[in-house]
Amino acid sequence: MNIFVTGGAGYIGSHTVRLLLEAGHKVRVFDNLSEGHAAAVPEGLLMEGDLADERRLAEALAGGFDAVVHFAASCAVGESMANPEKYYWNNVVASLRLLAAMRQAGVGRIVFSSTAAAYGNPVRTPITEDHPTEPINVYGRTKLDFEHALASYAAAYGLGYASLRYFNAAGAAPDARIGEDHDPETHLIPIVLQAALGRRDAVAIFGTDYPTPDGTCIRDYIHVYDLAQAHILALEAIRPGKGLVFNLGNGAGYSVREVIEAARRVTGRPVPTKEGPRRAGDPAVLVASSEHIRRVLGWKPRYPALDTIIETAWRWHREHPDGYGD
Length: 326
Prior knowledge:
The chain is an alpha/beta fold. The protein contains 10 helices and 13 strands.
């Protein structure tokens, strides 16, 4: 297939592009490089542009594409609570512009990068796809709003889509050629590894009074390559006028303290910590049930162990301490 990837220079997008190419697909990456890195994209595939630029987007989509994989978004929970306008413009308005451009170009399939934040505080775990969706942060609300738009477009226009609700993406390519590089970094595992490298003084633990065994938040970590593989399976399963929704996680939850201990174990280095208050919009526990995608698409994670996920991330950060800037 000929695949158009928005946000393909970003963390999850770049790993998915790599696996799409290995699977024999043709790829064009469309990215404004506000958070992504040109160095993460194979030469000749990147077209720089913004979804807000309708003319540039129409030009980019004019190549006869079979499907879109849509990663482009703002994705920091804390920032979304402080600056909701940015998130509604980037995650909802810009995404609707993409759907309009797809209709104009005759592209009828899309895989959407959604989030477990759509569920809010879980009433049961592990979380299944039929769990109530009551997001408690702006990021989750904007992603869920676009999921609703996809369902409406499927009913009205015959769009075929798959919405993949990620839990916590982590890790890096096993050969350490590409990995995670955000500025500022907000994800726990790279923050912990930066502390192990001595590149930050300590890891902030936001909240130690949650109703969990050690008082810190619990999350389900999934290797970025396992996420990427799920996109390829979803592309092949999409049918016109139909929508698919899948959770993506490993089904095992680890607390912030457990992740820090695992990083100490993997790196053999100290990881200083400091405790602070809770962040707005953080649920206590998010753990996935991925039985639906396992059953329907035959997806199976290749890197389920937390230590393995951290080890691949550690190799990337150790070899690229300045990320793509070194």
